[in-house]
C-alpha cells in the first residue's frame, strides 16, 4: 500500500551540477502571492503539489534546485517551513484483480450510499509536539501513517510538530512542515496563513486533541471554514469530559466507573465519604494518568487531591476496582457505520497499574468467548453512540469472578495502545483512520496484510504479542519508584512469539 | 568462581575496615544502578494456592502423531483420550470459544486445528442450563469434533466458570487431542492444497509412525446431518406467543436460545420430518446449521421445495439452512477449498451496503452466478466473493451462511433474529388480529389514556 510513492531523492545527497542546470531555469523566481511574505518566513518556491508537473519523468524533482540555488540559501536558514514535492503513482499502478475488488466494484453505490463526501485538497495534521513521559513516540507513528494516507489520496499535507526527532517531520512525508509549538496561538497563525480545507486532530495524542478542542471553542475553525476530518469535535469533548462521558454511556446502558467530578479538596473528601474507600483519584484532561492515585483513607486523599488539583482544575473521585482485569479494545468505525475491533489487549498487571506501566498481552488470553464478545459488542455500541469516525480505544475493567464490567476510559483518538495494536496485528490503524477521515469506507479499503482482501476484517493472530514497558527512573531524583496509576515508563518493547512464554522472554 | 569468593571472604575477614568499604561500594552500586521498585515497608510473601493441574504431572503424557493424507506427519503429545481417529482436517482462526466450537454439531467428523496458539487457558465450564433448559456454555451435549490439534495446550487453567481442564473434558468424552504441533505449518498445507483427510494415533503407534491400524474415513460421504439431528420432536418454551418449527440439521443451543428468549415457542423437528403436513400449526420455519455435505440431506431439500411454493409465512435458515434453502430454490453447491471457519469474516449486506463481521463455519457454499428469477443475493463475502445469504424477492424467506447467533463469535448480526421474529409477529397479527399478541407497552398506554 505504501509502495505507491516514488520518494523524492534527498535534496542534499544527490546534487549534481548537470542536473541542476536542467532544473533551475524552471523554478519561478518570484514567490507566489497568496499571502504576505516576510523575510523571516518562507518564500513559496514552487506550488504545484499535484502529480501533473513537467518533471514527472525526470529523475529529480524541482525541490533539489530549491535547496542548492544560492538565492535560496537564505530561505533554508531562516524559515521554519520546508516544502517538498513528490508525486504519486497510484493512478499508474493497477491493482491486481481480486475477489474483494470485484465485490467492491459491483456494490460501490451501496457502500457509499450514506457516506458524506469529504472534498479536501489541503489538510493540516497536528503533531504531538515534544515527547514526554506519558506521551511517547507512538504519535510519531500515527502522524506519519496519516500523512502517508493523505498523500496516497493526492492531498497536500501540512504538518505542525516542533519535534525534529521524528519520522513524520522528515522530508519524504509531509508537503510542508512547521517546526512550531503545538499551541492554540501558533496553530491559529498557521491556519490563517495556510488556509487548509481540513484539519486532523486525532493523530497527535492528547496534546493535539486538547488544542483542537480549544481551537473550536475559540471559533477559529468555523471562522476560517476549516473542516474537522474524522471524529467530530463534539465527540472528542464528550470523550474527554468525564461527566458528559458518563451521561452518554448511561444513555445506552453501558456501565461506567462511577465518578464524581470535584474541583476542591473538601468536595473530594465529601465525595469519597459517599463512595467509600478505597478510592481512585484521576484528573480530567490529563496525559498518561498524571496526578492520579489511590487513597485508602481521608488523610491520603487529602494529600493526593492537593497534588492533583495543582495539575488539573478538575479531579475525579472514583470507586477503586483494584484487582480487576484490565482489557482494551481498538475499534474502528467509518462514516457508513461499519465497525470492527482490530485487536483486544489484556493487561498482565491488574487494574491499578497504568496501562503504560503494565505488561500487555495481545490478544487477550484469559477471556472466554462470552466475556470477549460481551466487551466487543459494548465497544461497538459505545463507538456508534459517540459517533467516532476513525479509530477509538475503549478500556474496561472486568471483574475476574463474574461478567460484571465497567468502562474506564474511551480515547477517541489514536493512542499508545493503538500503536501497539497496529504493530501487533499488522493492521495499519492510523492509515485506515486517516483514509476513513477522508470519506473512505472499511469494506472498500484494502487489507494491508493480504493485499487482496478487505480492510473490514478483524485480524486473527496465530501468535502472542507481549509488551513490556521500560523505565528510566534513575535519571530522576526523589521520585517514587513504585508503579501505580500514573505512567512512569519512558518507552516500551514488544515481542512476538508462538507461545506466551516465548514472547515474554523475548521482550526481556 | 569459588576461589574468588573465598579470597574476598578471607580478605574481608582479615581486616574489619574492608567490610565497611565493600558495604559502601555495594550501596553505591545499588544507588547507581537503580532498582525498579524500592519499598521501605516490609512485605510478606503469601503463596497462592496452586492452580489445578490438568494432568498428574508426574506421569509423562503419551506421544501422539498426526498424519495428513498428503503424507505429512506431525509429532506431539496427547492430552485427551487414548483413541486413534480419522477425519477431515479443518482449521479455525477463532481466538476464543473452544468449548463452543468443539460442541458445535457443524464440526461433526472433523479434526479441528486451532490457529490460536494457546488453548485450554480458561478450562471448560460446567454443564449448566439456563431457564429454558438449554446448555449455557455449550452448543450441544457432547464434543462433536473427532479430535483437536493445538499448538500449545495450557496445562493449568484459571477461570471463574471452569470446572475441569480441556484435557480432562476431552478424555471424558473420548476425544483425542494433540499438542505441541506446529499448527501454522498445518494451516499452510491446508491453504495450499485444500482441506484433506488425516489420522491421529497415540502411544507406541505414534512413536513408530504406525498409521495403518485405521483407514482414512471421509465424513462427507456419510449423512452427518442424520447423526446429529434429534430423533424425536422436542419443544422449548411452549408458552411463547408465536410458534416456530426448527428443522434440526444439528442445531446449536444458542440458536434455540436466540429464538426462545425473544418469546417464541420452539419445536425442534428431526431433519427428515415432513413438516409440510403440520406447517400450518407454526407461524414460521427455521432451518438450522449442520455438518457435512448438504447433498446428503436431499430429503429436507424436497420438503423445503414444497414449502417455498406453498408456505407463505416467514422462513429463515442459517449455515446448512442457507445451503438447503438455496438448493430448494434451484442453486448448486460447491465445496470450498479449505472452508471458512473463523470469527472475523466480513459479510456485505447487499440490501443496504453495510459490512458486518460474522462468525462462520462451513465447508460448502452456494454457487450464485445464476439466480432463479424470484430470488436474489442477500449477503456476500467481501474477502473471497462467495455467497453468504439469499433472500426471496417477494415472500419472507431468507437465509444466511454465517452464524448470527455467534457463540462463539461476534454478535454483530444478531438483529437478523429480531427481524425474523418481528416479521413472524406482524404477520401473525395481520392473520389473526391482535387477540393473540398485545404488547404490554400498548396496554399501559391505553390504560393511561383511559
UniProtKB/TrEMBL annotation, chain A:
Give the Enzyme Commission number. 6.3.4.16, 6.3.5.5
Q: Where do the ATP-grasp domain residues begin and end?
A: 246-438
Q: Which GO terms describe its molecular function?
A: ATP binding; carbamoyl-phosphate synthase (ammonia) activity; carbamoyl-phosphate synthase (glutamine-hydrolyzing) activity; metal ion binding
* InterPro entries registered for this protein in UniProt: ATP-grasp, CPAse_ATP-bd, CPSase_dom, CPSase_preATP-grasp, PreATP-grasp_dom_sf
Q: What is this protein called?
A: Ammonium-dependent carbamoyl phosphate synthetase
Chemical reaction(s) catalysed: hydrogencarbonate + NH4(+) + 2 ATP = carbamoyl phosphate + 2 ADP + phosphate + 2 H(+)
- Organism superkingdom: Eukaryota
Offer a single GO CC term for the protein. Answer: cytoplasm
Q: Known NCBIfam families for this protein? A: PRK05294.1 (NF003671)
Give the organism the record lists: Rhizophagus clarus
From TrEMBL, chain B:
Cite the CDD domains for this sequence. Answer: GATase1_CPSase
Q: Which SUPFAM superfamilies does this one have?
A: Carbamoyl phosphate synthetase, small subunit N-terminal domain (SSF52021), Class I glutamine amidotransferase-like (SSF52317)
Q: What is its EC number?
A: 6.3.5.5
The record's annotation in PROSITE patterns points to: GATASE_TYPE_1 (PS51273)
All copies of the Carbamoyl-phosphate synthase small subunit N-terminal domain together span: 62-201
Which SMART domains does the record match to this protein? CPSase_sm_chain
Q: In which pathway does it act?
A: Amino-acid biosynthesis; L-arginine biosynthesis; carbamoyl phosphate from bicarbonate: step 1/1
- Pfam families of this UniProt entry? CPSase_sm_chain, GATase
* Reaction(s) this enzyme catalyzes, per UniProt: hydrogencarbonate + L-glutamine + 2 ATP + H2O = carbamoyl phosphate + L-glutamate + 2 ADP + phosphate + 2 H(+); L-glutamine + H2O = L-glutamate + NH4(+)
User: What is its EC class?
Assistant: ligase
What are the recorded GO MF terms, alphabetically?
A: ATP binding; carbamoyl-phosphate synthase (glutamine-hydrolyzing) activity; transferase activity
The protein's UniProt keywords, in alphabetical order, are: ATP-binding, Glutamine amidotransferase, Ligase, Nucleotide-binding, Transferase
Kindly indicate where the leader peptide sits in this chain: none
Q: Which GO terms describe its biological process?
A: 'de novo' pyrimidine nucleobase biosynthetic process; glutamine metabolic process
Q: Which InterPro entries is this protein grouped with?
A: Anth_synth/Amidotransfase, CarbamoylP_synth_ssu, CarbamoylP_synth_ssu_N, CarbP_synth_ssu_N_sf, Class_I_gatase-like, CPSase_GATase1, GATASE
Q: Which PANTHER family match?
A: CARBAMOYL-PHOSPHATE SYNTHASE SMALL CHAIN, MULTIFUNCTIONAL TRYPTOPHAN BIOSYNTHESIS PROTEIN-RELATED
Query: Subunit composition?
Result: Heterodimer composed of 2 chains; the small (or glutamine) chain promotes the hydrolysis of glutamine to ammonia, which is used by the large (or ammonia) chain to synthesize carbamoyl phosphate.
**NCBIfam families to which the protein is assigned, alphabetical:** CPSaseIIsmall, PRK12838.1
Which protein family is named in the record?
A: Belongs to the CarA family.
Q: What is this protein called?
A: Carbamoyl phosphate synthase arginine-specific small chain
Q: Which organism is it from?
A: Rhizophagus clarus
Query: Organism classification, top ranks?
Result: Eukaryota, Fungi, Fungi incertae sedis, Mucoromycota, Glomeromycotina
